[in-house]
Automatic annotation (TrEMBL):
Species of the source: Certhia brachydactyla
Keyword NAD: no
GO cellular component: plasma membrane
GO terms (BP aspect): membrane assembly; phospholipid homeostasis; plasma membrane organization; regulation of membrane lipid distribution
Protein name: TLCD1 protein
Gene that specifies this protein: Tlcd1
Record-linked SMART domains: TLC
Keywords: Membrane, Transmembrane, Transmembrane helix
């Protein structure tokens, strides 16, 4: 299932190559890979985000058993997203973007290792589904980056997405992450798989707060941005820039 997911996203990458690109992207060769990569990321966010919402809506009883709860839909979702993270890692490495996208590689390594452990043991699948609610937020985050890259001459569209993105960040990224962190620290034994997942979760907490501060500085407090003047980030892929 994971291998099939990798193949699906490989096909989507080839499809993205055939799609028309904005003039602002075509005129800067360094942006072409990033544009294509973001389109594939957008497809994953839409599919995985809606899938996570459906899984929890269809089986709300899963929320009462985060450690041992199981659903076929949730299991398939974790396999599907694992395939995306593997594909994206390979895409970054094979296109020589590792240095500029190292943050993504760290994030993906954490996600892949955690998800594979869940798939093998069948435990904490509900926690993974809750974490994948973040993909609902990523829909608007990716739209934000695509708008910036394409230089869309509609500031109203960017402004509207900016505020929607902030709300979604709180609702689908910060809130589930905070709840799971509280749950793991309170109820999960810090040994074996529990210790491994708790460590991953705490590291992810730090990354999310760092990205949130970047988002606020970039979209709401631009005067606080440091070191961005004159920097060419066309070929870079940051979770927030």
């Amino acid at each position: 299932l994971v291998g099939g997911s990798v193949a699906i996203f490989g096909a989507l990458r080839r499809l993205a190559l055939a799609l028309p690109q904005p003039a602002a992207v075509r005129s800067r060769p360094g942006r072409v890979w990033r544009w294509r990569n973001l389109l594939v990321s957008f497809a994953h966010s839409v599919l995985a985000g809606l899938w996570a919402l459906f899984s929890l809506w269809h089986s709300p009883e899963l929320l009462s058993d985060i450690q041992g709860g199981y659903s076929v839909s949730g299991h398939l979702l974790v396999c599907f997203s694992s395939g995306y993270f593997i594909h994206d890692t390979l895409d970054i490495i094979f296109n020589h973007q590792s240095r500029s996208s190292w943050e993504y590689l760290v994030h993906h390594a954490m996600a892949i290792s955690a998800f594979v452990s869940l798939i093998i043991t069948g435990r904490f699948l509900v926690a993974a589904v809750l974490l994948l609610l973040v993909e609902v937020s990523n829909i608007f985050l990716t739209v934000r980056m695509l708008l910036k890259m394409s230089n869309v001459p509609s500031p109203a569209l960017y402004e509207a997405n900016k505020y929607i993105n902030l709300v979604m960040y709180f609702a689908f990224r910060l809130a589930p992450q905070a709840y799971l962190t509280w749950y793991f620290l309170r109820y999960v034994e810090v040994q074996g798989q529990g210790a491994f997942l708790t460590a991953n979760l705490l590291l992810l907490d730090a990354m999310i707060l760092m990205y949130f501060s970047r988002l606020l500085r970039s979209d709401f407090f631009p005067s606080l941005r440091k070191g961005s003047a004159g920097r060419d980030v066309d070929g870079e892929k940051f979770l927030i820039d």
